[in-house]
Design a protein that fits this description.
alpha/beta, 721 residues, 9% strand, 3-stranded mixed sheet
Length: 721
């Protein structure tokens, strides 16, 4: 719209028409403006309303979207759980639907569960129903199938049992000797099972049985391990061939095991089945075990003999002042090897054609006990008690304590004799001082004081000059030792009269001797007090848990799991292996002060740890053989610096001399089967004994009935034995 200038219009035209027109124009403009404002306010209200509606719908949409996200997450989680359950179900089915052999093993395990928990038919049916409902099949075979499998695996008919009388703790008791009737048949069964399971590992086409044995609890046991088994060191891999009650010495082994062991040399081949095919494998025998068992096999008299080594004839002195010490012993000396010829010459009859495998852990454990464990304990005792400063080992310290106890007993006895003599001397002084007249039963002495002496001893003595008889007290003899010496002496005795002693001189003599006895008694009491104090100091360190340093050492060993238990005494193989790792060596050495002992002990422990690590090698190459010999040489030098005064034990000689020679010949130390599996076999025998022992408990409770809680019921002697 065009705009006009009113002032110009008013001045140039008639006033009223123009004014009317102008006013109309203004009114019209205002009307248009008001209409426009009213429209704009209505639109704004609608816009605000729409915005609020959009905002409400947006919030609703956000809530719906959040709900959707939550639902989607829950659905995803449930899908994952369902998928996981499906995977677990499939995994369970895969595990349970294995080979027939696995099912048979499950059957065997189930049969043991039935015998252990007394599962009845009703429970078996319920379990079968449960498995069929949940997984679609049952892992439990029928009792008929289990009985058939157990009959197939039963080898009890291969053993014979004999009741013999033996001596246990100086008491004759009856025990059972168990022997295998046919070791060849037993090995054939083992080889057949391994072959059909695809687990028979022949070495150069040979089966390698390893004869081993040990004594645990009352029984000595002989077992056979198979190096052709995947787990030759497991106790479950050992075949039991013989056991008897008593020491595992040569006489007992010849008596109880001789018949079984004599058949082993005749087993040259083993026939076994692979499917329906009968195969034959050559047998290469080995033997291992602790030194006691190996010595007994060859009729050797053991580690305390003049020639204690089982590998050679070496005159090794292990005890006494003339013992062979590490500092002076020549480990390079060559001695004649033990052969079948000189064994038969020096010992008893028998054939010994098996290859002897040096025991691994047994040798290392023996060296560790003598040159590490004993030295650490002795050092802590020295730190807690200065009296042990010159004592090399714990046995030496115990010997010092024993001598202190003996010295204490001698001093107490001497003091008791002196106090008796002093009491008698005081009686003599009183009797001589109050002397009046000789009694009726007087002796030939001019001053008989027998009535004044409170003693029932009426010993007499005869003068060799005047031939008169006197009471020993009337001759001022107050010591029982002097009386005993006079009776056993050929020296002449002269009375006071013949020596012309007066009454006053006799009293003076009694006073002089009494004073000497009192002074001697005081000296001995002072010495006894010192000896008793030293004995108590030694006992405080050696008895119980020991002194503060020993307790600290035991605490550290217990913390790292290397403290010997009450059952085993000294640390076992796994504990020694852990202790000899560099990390734990430093932890243990923190107990000791920084001195030469600590530095030398560190060298010995590190090198012994390297030797123990090498003992676990299956094979040695040429470089490893040289490295092992170098380790042995450095170990000997470290021992010479650490404990040169210690005696050489047979295990150390065997480790230094014969183990490297064995490795040079056979490229291995212990091979796949060691003596440690036999140690674990004791536990299996003990479990069997517990099962049998339970029958005795049940019989006893059944026999005494309701009186089982009566404290007056005594256990019969039959049960005590």
């Amino acid at each position: 719209m065009r705009s006009y200038n009113l002032r110009v219009i008013i001045t140039t035209a008639p006033f009223w028409p123009i004014l009317f027109i102008g006013s109309m124009m203004v009114v019209g403009k205002r009307l248009r403006s008001s209409r426009e404002n009213a429209g704009q306010s209505a639109l704004s209200r609608e816009n605000i309303k729409l915005k609020e509606e959009i905002k409400e719908k947006t919030s609703i949409i956000e809530v719906i979207e959040n709900d959707n996200k939550t639902c989607k997450y829950e659905i995803t989680v449930k899908d994952r759980e369902i998928s996981s359950e499906k995977k677990q179900t499939r995994k369970l089915k895969d595990e349970l639907l294995g080979k027939d052999l696995e099912i048979e093993r499950i059957c065997v395990k189930y049969s043991s569960l039935m015998s252990k928990f007394n599962f009845g038919d009703g429970l078996v049916k319920a379990m079968n129903h449960y498995y069929n409902a949940k997984v679609g099949f049952s892992i439990l075979a029928s009792r008929r199938a289990i009985a058939k499998l157990m009959k197939l695996l039963d080898i009890s008919d291969l053993y014979e049992f004999e009741v013999v009388t033996c001596v246990i703790n100086k008491k004759e008791v009856q025990r059972v000797v168990i022997r295998c009737r046919s070791v060849e048949h037993l090995l054939s069964i083992r080889a057949t099972n391994l072959a059909n399971a695809g687990r028979l590992q022949l070495k150069n086409g040979k089966i390698i049985p390893v004869l081993s044995g040990d004594r645990g609890d009352e029984e000595a046991k002989a077992v056979i391990g198979l190096e052709c088994s995947p787990t030759p060191n497991s106790p479950y891999s050992l075949s039991f061939i013989c056991s008897f009650c008593g020491e595992d010495n040569y006489a007992n082994m010849l008596k109880f095991m001789g018949r079984t062991l004599s058949t082993l040399d005749n087993i040259k081949f083993i026939d076994y089945k692979y499917g329906d095919v009968v195969l034959r494998a050559e047998v290469d025998w080995k033997k291992t075990g602790d030194f006691k068992f190996l010595s007994s096999l060859s009729a050797h008299t053991g580690q305390s003999s003049t020639n204690p080594c089982i590998g050679c004839i070496i005159p090794l002195c292990t005890h006494g002042d003339h013992r062979d010490t590490i500092g002076l012993f020549n480990f390079e000396l060559k001695f004649d090897d033990r052969t079948e010829a000189n064994i038969l010459e020096h010992c008893q009859q028998g054939t010994h054609s098996m290859k002897e495998v040096p025991p691994t852990v047994h040798i290392v454990a023996g060296v560790h006990e003598k040159y590490v464990d004993d030295q650490m304990k002795a050092k802590t005792n020295k730190m807690d008690c200065a009296l042990f400063e010159n004592a090399r080992t714990v046995p030496h310290q115990k010997s010092m304590l024993k001598k202190k106890k003996e010295e204490e007993l001698v001093l107490k006895s001497a003091i008791n004799f002196l106090e008796a003599d002093i009491a008698m001397g005081k009686n003599m002084m009183s009797a001589f001082s109050n002397y009046t007249v000789n009694p009726e039963d007087s002796c030939d002495s001019q001053y008989c004081i027998i009535d004044g002496c409170s003693s029932n001893t009426l010993d007499w003595v005869k003068c060799d000059l005047c031939q008169r008889n006197y009471h020993i007290f009337c001759m001022c003899i107050m010591s029982a030792k002097i009386v005993h010496k006079m009776k056993n002496s050929s020296s002449p005795f002269y009375c006071w009269s013949c020596r012309e002693f007066s009454h006053e001189e006799m009293i003076y003599n009694v006073e002089f001797e009494l004073k000497q006895y009192i002074d001697e008694a005081e000296t001995l009491k002072t010495k006894l007090s010192s000896v008793t104090r030293d004995k108590k100091s030694m006992e405080a360190v050696l008895s119980g848990e020991g002194g503060p340093s020993r307790k600290k050492l035991d605490s550290v060993l217990k913390k790292i799991g290397c403290l010997g238990s009450a059952w085993f005494g000294n640390p076992v193989g796994n504990q020694i292996r852990k202790l000899l790792r560099p990390k734990y060596i430093e932890i243990v050495l923190e107990v000791f002060p920084d001195d030469e002992f600590k530095s030398n002990l560190r060298k010995v422990m590190i090198l012994l740890g390297e030797i123990m690590t090498a003992s676990g090698k299956q094979t040695f190459n040429d470089f490893e053989k040289l490295e092992f010999k170098d380790t042995i040489s450095r170990f000997v030098n470290a021992l010479r610096e650490f404990c040169p005064e210690e005696n050489v034990i047979p295990k150390l000689h065997y480790l230094v001399k014969h183990v490297p020679e064995y490795i040079d010949i056979y490229d291995t130390w212990g091979g796949a089967c060691s003596e440690q599996s036999t140690e674990h076999f004791h536990d299996l025998i003990f479990q069997a004994k517990l099962m049998v022992r339970r029958f005795g408990f049940l019989n006893y409770l059944n026999d005494i009935g309701e009186n089982c809680n009566d404290p007056m019921i005594e256990i019969p002697d039959e049960y005590r034995s």
